[in-house]
């Protein structure tokens, strides 16, 4: 049921509550992951057959970029290339640069970055083949300089990966593709099998079962984040047509789990009524209207009326949405008050779908309120950060007493001695200054 309430209504706070990890998913993940770790490829094939319907033995997908491009619609291929160019451009611009500063006595310290060697990305393909996710994950790993990029995606009974999705993976830089989805894909990448060597990190969105699996393999591998159903919040002051706002709310409700959430915060009840009418009207013309109606019936779309833009912004900050559209006057000014959102879309000509497909930043974003503490996926998530320190003798001499004091307080004699010993004896000091190691 689609309701209109005030922002101080208890219903808003209940709407904000999203279950973190469904027990059903947690239990299934434990069972499947244990089997994959114990049995390797045999377990992966068994679960692919059970959950996805594919009973073949060859899990790896062969692909050729030129052949794939020739096999799909030219307009679609052009759209994939356009998205890839834009995402790669943004990714390269966002990479953190190495830096250093001088120490007080002539040395240097700072940070530098190196790419991971082998990473895995998960690309959903169940209710919809998310070719865009191929671009929004693999491209970032490629921009970071990763040499081996493994991609897993469910392919259904036929074992045939959607050609557009596969083309996007190939174009973005995937070096291996597997027709494996769900928990078994996460296990295969995390633990490694004879078919697929283990990766260092797993990134990408997925359903509750994939998310539970990613959380449970954390430590065996790194993960980007834990994410749930898609969500959006729109702050609207009536300066943008209600039909635009309604279309944006519906864009996230059609993903397929039925647990998606769309929040509209309007600054007048009259405009809120207009948005409600448009949502119900536009829903009827959608090809996935049954999915959207399920979201509406579960209370997954809510319209709240705020006293002002500032009050509305505070409501959205509490919601901490995956996507946040600011459809108000002076949208960039209002954006300065954002504290919790995965990605922000400012102004009437910036629908969230632009970010989902082509704008530049990755659409792999925190959900379920996790935008309070997590960020969206970036190329730096596929790199290792290294700090470095290069002291001079004078730097160590200046800090020696502090090192010795901490060592004494913490009972770590060897720590203190590591500094002290370098100043015991003229010969040792001379060798160190000359760069000769003393044995």
Q: Summarize this, please?
A:
45% of the residues lie in helices and 15% in strands. It has helices at residues 10-16, 23-39, 41-51, 65-71, 74-94, 131-144, 163-172, 182-191, 208-217, 242-253, 269-283, 289-297, 309-319, 331-335, 352-357, 393-410, 413-420, 426-433, and strands at 3-6, 99-102, 108-115, 118-122, 148-152, 176-178, 201-203, 222-223, 231-236, 261-266, 301-305, 323-327, 343-346, 383-390. Helix 2 (23-39) packs across helix 8 (182-191).
Spans of at least 5 consecutive residues whose pLDDT stays below 50 are: none
Strand tally is 14
Question: In whole angstroms, how far apart are the ends?
Answer: 77 Å
**Major sheet summary line:** 6 strands, parallel
SS-derived structural category: alpha/beta
Looking at this protein, list some descriptive labels:
alpha/beta; 5-stranded parallel β-sheet; 45% helix; 439 residues; Rossmann fold; globular
What does this structure look like?
By secondary structure, the protein is α/β, with parallel strands linked by helices. It has three domains: 3-18 and 228-359, Nitrogenase molybdenum iron protein domain (Rossmann fold, 3-Layer(aba) Sandwich), CATH 3.40.50.1980; 23-227, Rossmann fold; 391-433, no CATH class. 45% of the residues lie in helices and 15% in strands. The chain contains 18 helices and 14 strands. The protein has helices at 10-16, 23-39, 41-51, 65-71, 74-94, 131-144, 163-172, 182-191, 208-217, 242-253, 269-283, 289-297, 309-319, 331-335, 352-357, 393-410, 413-420, 426-433, and strands at 3-6, 99-102, 108-115, 118-122, 148-152, 176-178, 201-203, 222-223, 231-236, 261-266, 301-305, 323-327, 343-346, 383-390. The protein has a six-stranded parallel beta sheet with strand order 1-11-10-9-12-13, with helices on both faces. The protein has a five-stranded parallel beta sheet with strand order 6-5-4-7-8, sandwiched between helices. A three-stranded antiparallel beta sheet has the order 2-3-14, with no helix packed on it. A hairpin with a 5-residue loop joins β2 (99-102) and β3 (108-115). α2 (23-39) crosses α3 (41-51), α6 packs parallel to α7 (163-172) and α8 (182-191) runs parallel beside α9 (208-217). The protein is globular and about 85 Å long. The termini are far apart. The mean pLDDT is 92.
């Amino acid at each position: 049921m689609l309701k209109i309430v005030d922002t101080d209504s208890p219903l808003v706070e209940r709407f904000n509550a999203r279950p973190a990890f469904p027990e059903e998913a947690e239990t299934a993940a434990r069972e499947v992951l244990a089997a994959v770790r114990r049995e390797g490829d045999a377990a992966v094939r068994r679960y692919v057959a059970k959950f996805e319907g594919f009973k073949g033995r060859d899990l790896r997908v062969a692909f050729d970029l030129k052949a794939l491009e020739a096999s799909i619609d030219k307009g679609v291929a052009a759209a994939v290339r356009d998205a890839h160019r834009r995402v790669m451009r943004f990714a390269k611009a966002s990479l953190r640069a190495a830096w250093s500063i001088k120490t007080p006595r002539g040395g240097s310290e700072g940070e530098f970055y190196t790419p991971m060697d082998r990473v895995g990305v998960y690309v959903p393909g169940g209710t919809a083949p998310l070719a865009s996710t191929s671009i929004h994950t693999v491209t970032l790993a490629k921009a970071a300089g990763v040499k081996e990029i493994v991609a897993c995606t469910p392919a259904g009974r036929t074992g045939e990966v959607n050609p557009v999705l596969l083309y996007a993976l190939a174009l973005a830089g995937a070096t291996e593709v597997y027709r494996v989805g769900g928990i078994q894909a996460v296990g295969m990448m995390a633990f490694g099998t004879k078919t697929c060597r283990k990766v260092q990190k797993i990134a990408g969105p997925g359903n509750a079962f994939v998310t539970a699996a990613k959380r449970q393999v954390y430590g065996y591998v790194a993960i980007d984040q834990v994410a749930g159903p898609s969500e959006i919040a729109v702050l609207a002051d009536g300066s943008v047509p209600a039909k635009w706002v309604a279309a944006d709310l519906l864009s996230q409700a059609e993903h397929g789990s039925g647990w998606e959430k769309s929040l509209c915060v309007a600054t007048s009840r009259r405009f809120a009524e207009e948005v409600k009418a448009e949502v119900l009207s536009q829903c009827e013309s959608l090809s996935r209207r049954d999915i959207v109606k399920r979201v509406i019936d579960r209370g997954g779309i809510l319209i709240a009326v705020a006293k002002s833009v500032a009050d509305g912004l505070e409501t959205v900050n509490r919601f901490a949405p995956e996507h946040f559209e600011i459809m108000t006057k002076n949208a960039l000014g209002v954006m300065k008050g954002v504290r919790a959102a995965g990605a922000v879309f400012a102004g009437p000509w910036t629908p969230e779908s632009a970010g989902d497909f082509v704008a530049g930043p990755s659409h792999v974003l925190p959900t379920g309120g996790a935008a309070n503490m997590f960020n969206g996926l970036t190329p730096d998530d596929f790199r290792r950060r290294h700090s470095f320190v290069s002291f001079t003798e004078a730097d160590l001499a200046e800090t020696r007493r502090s090192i010795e004091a901490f060592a004494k307080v913490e009972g770590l004699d060897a720590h203190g001695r590591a500094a002290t010993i370098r100043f015991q004896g003229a010969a040792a000091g001379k060798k160190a200054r000359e760069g000769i190691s003393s044995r």
